[in-house]
Amino acid sequence: MKRADILKLVFIIGVGLMMIANGQTKQENKHGQSGIYTSYHGLIMCGYQGWFSAPGDGTGDTWGHYGRNGKFDDDHCTIDLWPDVSEYKKTYETSFKHADGSPVHVFSSNDESTVDLHFKWMKEYGIDGVFMQRFFGRTKTAKRRKETSQILEYGAEASEKYGRAFAVMYDLSGLNPGESISSVIEDWKYLVDSRKVTNRETYLYHNNKPLVTIWGIGFPDRPYTVRDVDIMRLIDFLKNDPEYGQCSVMLGVPTYWRTLNKDCNNDPYIHEVIKKADMIMPWMVQRFSPYIHHEMDRYRDIILADMEWCDKNNIEYIPCVHPGFSWYNISHSSDRHKP
User: Fold this and answer.
1) Which residues 6+ apart lie within 8 Å of 33 measured at CB?
2) Which residues make Cβ contacts (< 8 Å) with residue 121, sequence separation at least 6?
3) Three-state secondary structure of the chain
4) Is 293 exposed, middle or buried (0-12, 13-18, 19+ CB in 10 A)?
5) What is the per-residue pLDDT across 192-219, written as a single tens digit (0 to 9) for each?
6) What distance in Å separates the CA atoms of residue 272 and residue 241, rounded to the nearest whole number?
7) Other Cβ atoms within 10 Å of 87 Cβ, number
């Protein structure tokens, strides 16, 4: 074979390999291109649990998160504020009465019209979007994943309708020692494959990557620790898996994550976990009070020191602001009204 023919053959083979490689690259990553929201910077995002249910809404004959033990009355009420339901298309009658004797109604998160209204309000009041919560229990089986994805689907559709951002937040609440965190990995695969969440034009991207949050790292009141559940494996999957990864990862951590005390486990490994993420959001709810002398100065100093640590370790810091609630109804037993 002549030298020119050999060079020509090498060129053809090389081009063919490049075409195959490019084709594989496109097939490997299952996410779409970033759409409307290419960065978290400058956005105001809320958490969206979607956990209120009512008898008759198709989820079972229970009052989910309205009341305790499936009941919703004076002795079992777990909410602080009653929702104004004047704009809801569909509501559910309760045993409570107005002053005129007419029944009081509430909404259910499981109605598409409910989720649509919430996203409409976000647009009206300048809220950029939400993190759709996926609690660990919803990830355990294929059946459970499918059953609990409807509200996420409603949110994705409403986000496009009203131009609001949305992203998935995995809350590890309900995870116990010995349970595999691999179910979260399988859930993310399901959401990417079946729900096409990262192909929505309103899915929140950060640094040109889909943003995924893992909430519940380092809290001592939880039965698991970051060492128990191999959290590093989950982070590595979300960041580096060629098909389902290539994501930006945010971690939800305690207020005192940097000093590893008070509301945080005293384990330096937590810092190693944080360094693998792209950003963190410390939980600051009910940790500070304006009624204590110089408390706001302490609040400021903690945040500044946290941000300095993050800057040194190339981690982005996301502040958490919460309107607050009393915990009174949700944490007290049914005999709280007795003398």
Assistant:
1) none
2) 127
3) CCHHHHHHHHHHHHHHHHHHHHHHHHHHCCCCCCCCCCCCCCCCEEEECCCCCCCCCCCCCCCCCCEHHHCCCCCCECCCCCCCCCCCCCCEEEEEECCCCCEEEECCCCCHHHHHHHHHHHHHCCCCEEEEEEEHHHHCCHHHHHHCCHHHHHHHHHHHHHCCEEEEEEECCCCCCCCCCHHHHHHHHHHHHCCCHHHCCCECEECCEEEEEEECCCCCCCCCCCCCCCHHHHHHHHHHCCCCCCCEEEEEEECCCCCCCCCCCCCCHHHHHHHCCCEEEEECCCCCCCCCCCHHHHHHHHHHHHHHHHHHCCCEECCCCCCCCCCHHHHCCCCCCCC
4) exposed
5) 999 999 999 999 999 999 999 999 999 9
6) 20
7) 10
Count of Cβ atoms closer than 10 Å to residue 122 Cβ: 23
CATH number of 35-51+112-331: 3.20.20.80
Residues 6+ apart with CB under 8 A from 189: 244
Q: What are phi and psi of 165, to 5 degrees?
A: -80, 155
CB neighbour list of residue 125: distance below 8 Å, 6 or more residues apart: none
- Which residue matches tokens 């959401």? 191
CB atoms under 10 Å from CB of 336, counted, come to 10
Q: 291-337 pLDDT, tens per residue?
A: 899 999 999 999 999 999 999 999 999 999 887 677 788 877 444 43
Of the CA atoms within 13 Å of residue 286, those in its CB half-sphere come to 5
Domains in the chain: boundaries: 35-51+112-331, 52-108
Torsion of CA 117, 92, 173, 272, to 10 degrees: 10
Give Rg (Cα) of the chain.
24
The model scores a pTM over 0.85:
yes
d(CA 222, CA 229): 12
